[in-house]
Every structure is written in structure tokens, then in C-alpha cells.
Fold this protein.
Amino acid sequence: MRMILLGPPGSGKGTQAQKLIEHFKIPQVSTGDLFRAAVKNQTALGKKAKEYMDKGALVPDEVVIGMVEERMKQPDTKKGFILDGFPRTIPQAQSLDKMLDQLKMKVDAVVEVEVPDAEVVRRISGRRTCQNCSAMYHVEFNKPKVAGKCDKCGGELYQRDDDQEDVIKSRLKVYHDQTAPLVEYYGKKGLVKNVAGQGSIDEIFHKIKQALGAA
Ligand code: AP5
Ligand code: MG
């Protein structure tokens, strides 16, 4: 299974990816997580990416594409992958097509998770993320067993710098302007599966599996 998770910030891409990894036994490639790891390690890539991330803007295409190319060359992607947060622009999608052609691979499905903007703001403002393993929680909708600690690895939970209301609004605008056109791009290839992203995390997971013919 080679799939892309498409959807606005806070639509639950990362949350669903965690469940899909277990179900399909394939890795998640999250460009947001890769950038946050680079920021944490204070690499040159991280310093550059942070300037854009803090404003809710997209990191320039050439930077993202180079990073994804490196990641896709790793052997674990041979059995399949879940792309989360990439591609996010038409040029990124075109580069992905080229990249996969060279690796003799193709995308099987693009799952579009639809969540209204007001719900996005509610979800993101209560999100907590594990410093250590990037697992996501929500202070109301998906609480950790022990407040402030990750259930999976015991890591500290923190609030992302870009999870503030003004930055969330910029990220939403960027999504509608630059990323939403990918629905048409992949629609023309007959790959898009629409999933309504409201309901419990398990309900949405079930709908995604159904859409993929894997329920
Ligand atoms: P990225 O990390 O990809 O952020 P995003 O797309 O804004 O999406 P999020 O991670 O915020 O949301 P999500 O859909 O994963 O939702 P989650 O599962 O956490 O990108 C960050 C930045 O990096 C970008 O702004 C950009 O600067 C840069 N970047 C990354 N990729 C790039 C690219 N390709 N090109 C250029 N720049 C790039 O869920 C959200 C919350 O809701 C959680 O608290 C969760 O517990 C809760 N929740 C989930 N599902 C439900 C549910 N069903 N009901 C109630 N609550 C729920
Ligand atoms: Mg995410």
C-alpha cells in the first residue's frame, strides 16, 4: 500500500497514520515530523524550516523535495508508505511522480480527510505532541493516561510553536490556496478517496480502511 494522506492542518492525518502504520505494517513519512526533528537537532535544514513553520507558511519546494527524496531511498519504503503532509503543492506532486517513476513505484490511493475549519481550530488548539516519538494527544478528545506524558514512550508532551490561533489561520489559508488543488490533480488520476473526518478517531479509521478496501 502506497498512500497519501491529504487534508487540512489538524484533520487527523498524523493520528490516523499512527493506526495505519500498525494495520498495514508500513512506515509513515511525515514531512512535518522530519522538519520538527531537524529543528530539535538544530541542523541547517531545521533552522531554515523553522522560519517558515513559525509563520504557518510552506517551506520552499526544493528544500522539501530534497528531504523527501532522501527519505524515500531508505529500504523500509519498498514495502509501502504513508505520505503525511507531502505533497502540499502541485510542483511537489509532480516531483513525487518523477521520484516514484525512477523507483518503479506508483501511488495506490490518496485519502482526502475533510474537516471544517472551525473544527480544525478546536482540535489544534488542544493538541499535545510527544517530544520524543511525535505521538499526538488532545487535552479533551484523546487524553494521555498520565497528564503531560506519552502513553507509548513516557516522553514529555508539549504544544507545538505553530499551534496558536493566528498561525493556525495562516496554515488553513495556505492549505486552501496551495494544497487543496491537489484533490483535482489526483482526482484526474482516479486516485482520490474522500473520507468525512468528523466522528471518533476509531470511526474515521474504519472509514479510511473501507475506502481503501481493507476493512
Ligand atoms: P505538518 O506537521 O504537516 O502540519 P499540518 O499539515 O498543519 O497538520 P497537523 O500535523 O497540524 O495536523 P494533522 O492532520 O496531522 O492532525 P493530528 O493527527 O495531529 O506541517 C507543519 C509545518 O511544516 C507546515 O506548516 C510547513 O511550514 C512545514 N511543512 C510540512 N510539510 C511541508 C511540505 N510538504 N511543504 C512545505 N512545507 C511543509 O490531529 C490534530 C489534533 O486533533 C490532535 O490533538 C488529535 O489528538 C486530535 N484529533 C485527531 N482526530 C480527532 C478526531 N477524530 N476527533 C477529535 N480530535 C481528533
Ligand atoms: Mg501531523
Observations:
- The mean pLDDT is 95.
- Residues 2-26+79-114+168-211 form a domain with the Rossmann fold fold (CATH 3.40.50.300).
- The CA atoms of residues 125 and 164 lie 7 Å apart.
